[in-house]
Each structure stands twice: as C-alpha cells, then as structure tokens.
Specification:
- The chain is an alpha/beta fold.
- The strands form 2 sheets. The protein has a 5-stranded mixed beta sheet with strand order 4-3-5-2-6, sandwiched between helices. A two-stranded antiparallel sheet has the order 1-7.
- β3, α1 and β4 form a beta-alpha-beta unit.
C-alpha cells in the first residue's frame, strides 16, 4: 500500500480509487540524538526527498543533507553507525510500524510542509467492478479524506 503522494497522478487504465483509510498525522520526524534545532553546524541529515532537503536548507542553512536509501530500520541503522547524524522520516510510518520506543523529534509543519496527499492511503479497484463502497466499513471510507486530495492538489498547483 502506498501513500497517495507516491502514486501517479493519472491512475492505471481501468482502475480508480475506491476508498481512503483514515488519515494519519502528516508531520515529519527527526531520528537522531537531538532535536533539529540542536544539531551542530555541518551535521549531516539523511533524506531522499528533495522537498525535505530544500526546506531544511531554507530554515537551517548550517546543516547538510544527503540522499539516504532503505527501509525505516536501514535508515535508522545508518544513523546508529555514524554514517548520518540524523534522518528524516514520516511520523505516520513510524506510528504504523508501531515503533513506540524510537527516540524521535517531531518537526513543525511550518518548517517542513507535508507533500499533498502525504499519509492518505487509498484503496484502488478496477473500474469494471461493481461498486466496493458497501463492503468498506464507515471507518475506512472517510468522507473528509476523500475531499483532501482534491483540495491539496489544487492548493499546490
């Protein structure tokens, strides 16, 4: 399952979004020994998101960013190994993976603005299928979540 922000704008031919799961928190989180504001000059933050890297450079020009690859555990391992001073991850991912024991520092959405569609999890279906809506529980088909992609996309255009 992918966040809406990671899906193509135009769905695959013959498919459509049937429902959205309830939206999770949208802010990003720093994984490292200290909060973003306390990192020393030249500290290296791992992120493969150009959007996040740009916003870090804008607000914290004394910090450096470089691409980092791998799943959550791999990225945290690179911080533990000293290859990076910290890494940026979506809080929603940590929450969904039930990583309660990971030391983390939330980052204000005023510092790193979430991408349109971040943390929205759509369920796709083939268009020729009979409507799936009756099969989804009310908790899965979230009316506010259904309107968010349109409003976020229009505000970022």
């Amino acid at each position: 399952m992918h966040s809406l922000k990671d899906l193509p704008v135009n769905p695959a031919p013959g498919t459509r979004i049937a429902a959205y799961l309830p939206r999770a928190v949208t802010h990003d989180t720093l994984i490292g020994p200290m909060p973003l504001e306390a990192l020393p000059e030249g500290a290296l933050i791992g992120t493969s998101s150009r959007r996040r890297a740009y916003q870090i450079a804008l607000h914290y020009p004394h910090l450096r960013t470089e691409p980092i690859r791998g799943n959550v555990e791999t990225r945290m391992g690179k911080v533990d190994a000293g290859l990076f001073d910290a890494t940026l991850l979506a809080e929603a991912g940590l929450t969904r993976l039930d990583m309660k024991d990971v030391t983390r520092y939330p980052i204000s959405e005023e510092i790193i603005v979430p991408a349109p569609g971040q943390t929205l999890l759509p369920s796709r279906r083939e268009t020729k299928m009979v409507s799936c809506r009756p099969y989804f529980s009310r908790s899965m088909t979230q009316r506010p979540s259904e309107r968010l992609p349109l409003s976020e996309a229009s505000s970022s255009a």
